[in-house]
Specification:
Layout: H1 13-43, H2 47-70, E1 72-73, H3 76-95, H4 98-101, H5 105-130, H6 140-168, E2 176-179, E3 181-184, E4 196-199, E5 204-205, E6 208-209, H7 211-214, E7 217-220, H8 222-248, H9 254-257, E8 262-263, H10 274-297, H11 299-313, E9 319-324, H12 327-342, E10 346-349, H13 358-363, E11 371-377
Antiparallel strand pairs: 1-8, 2-7, 3-4, 5-6, 9-11, 10-11
Helix pairs in contact: 1-2, 1-3, 2-3, 3-5, 5-6, 5-8, 6-8, 11-12
């Protein structure tokens, strides 16, 4: 997918030090406010808020740990958004009740979450794709689909987590919505598959009239879950489109580049295990020798000529078996036999290649690369 010449240039040591100072300042300021919030929660005996603060501090430290373990540099914009997202979700949203005070706060964070998680999924596959130890050649569309599916999977798993917490710990992570009318086919008196719209005009809870308090039916979590997944989908699609064009243009996209980590130290050949290095050298030498032999002996040209003259050398009903020793020869033979079959030259041919048995390969190791195909000349 990516060529070496198109990779982003790793930042210099001076740039890295400047970035570290900048991100440490942002993370330090946010961590300071988290600690103040935790101290206030301790004085108020709000132990659940202390747990949230500890979780926020751990999450704030994760990007630096990941950078160190994977030897990558997360772009400043990406890391800054992650820090702000953690603070907005855990401290402002959960502890300061922004989820209920500010309309759309939850929607905004879920949209950003879909975007960020899609970026994470994209980065994970991209890092594998750029590694010398993997030979992935993923198309831009496939990589964008991976990022989208990764984001949606994490979004669904998070909704499972919210549902489990609400059921087990009696929280209210899946927020309630007030429904002012019911649309249901079950209420159709004729039993038809046509929904009946019934406005809710009165609400009775435990014998008390709650119409003035909630003015409708209280949906417990379902609408919140679907809305969260919808906006998560929007965020995932947004980054998937950006990632698609980033790969399509060979890494030249400026927007996506602000979210793609840079590998700081590519593995050197000296870091390769000795046995793996010897195997690599041996296989490379074999391929080079094979290419030189094919070119010097004009093997493909000879094989082309042979396949053209073969039908004239066979009597009607005659049979031929051809042995090849590498995929290039086999493809040429298969193509020629298939073309002859379509033209009526051969009445039948081997559609599947015939390989030597395990016993034969043991007795004759050179037979491992051998492939055989056959054909039958048409009766005249």
């Amino acid at each position: 997918m990516f060529h070496k010449s198109k990779r982003k240039t790793p930042p210099t040591q001076a740039e890295l030090r400047q970035r570290v100072r900048r991100r440490m300042t942002l993370r330090g300021v946010l961590a300071f406010f988290v600690v103040l919030t935790m101290i206030r929660a301790a004085f108020m005996h709000r132990f659940e808020n202390i747990f949230v603060c500890v979780l926020a501090l751990i999450l704030l430290a994760l990007p630096s740990i990941i950078e160190k373990q994977l030897a990558i540099d997360i772009p400043p914009l990406m890391e800054g958004i992650i820090y702000c997202f953690i603070y907005a979700a855990e401290i402002l949203g959960e502890i300061n009740s922004f989820y209920t005070i500010i309309p759309g706060w939850d929607t905004m964070l879920h949209t950003i979450n879909g975007f960020l998680v899609a970026a994470v999924g994209f980065c994970l596959v991209d890092l594998f794709n750029r590694s010398e130890r993997f030979t992935f050649r993923l198309s831009p569309l496939f990589l964008a689909l991976v990022a989208f599916c990764f984001s949606m999977t994490v979004g669904v798993l998070w909704e499972f987590f919210e549902f489990t917490c609400d059921q087990v710990m009696h929280t209210d992570m899946q927020k309630d919505y007030v429904v002012h009318e019911i649309n249901s086919v079950s209420l159709n008196p004729d039993g038809l598959n046509t929904p009946i719209h019934v406005p809710i005009e009165s609400v009775i809870v435990n014998g008390e009239d709650w119409t003035e308090e909630i003015d409708g039916y209280l949906d417990i979590g379902l609408i919140d879950t679907m809305k969260d997944l919808q906006v998560n989908c929007i965020g995932a699609i947004a980054f998937s489109v950006i990632g698609f064009f980033y790969v399509k243009r060979r890494g030249k996209g400026k927007v996506a580049a602000a979210f793609i980590p840079v590998v700081l130290n590519e593995p050197e050949d000296n870091d390769m295990p000795e046995k793996e290095k010897k195997d690599t050298i041996r296989k490379t030498c074999q391929r080079v020798f094979q290419a030189l032999r094919i070119d010097v002996n004009q093997e493909f040209e000879v094989l082309y000529e042979f396949m053209e003259k073969l039908p004239d050398a066979l009597k009607p009903g005659g049979r031929v078996a051809i042995l090849t020793f590498h995929s290039g020869e086999d493809k040429l033979v298969k193509k020629a036999l298939k073309a002859g079959y379509k033209e009526g030259i051969y009445s039948d041919y081997a559609k599947d290649v015939i390989r030597p048995s395990a016993k034969e390969c043991t007795q004759n190791p050179r037979a491992r690369s051998t492939k055989m195909r056959w054909a039958v000349r048409t009766e005249e």
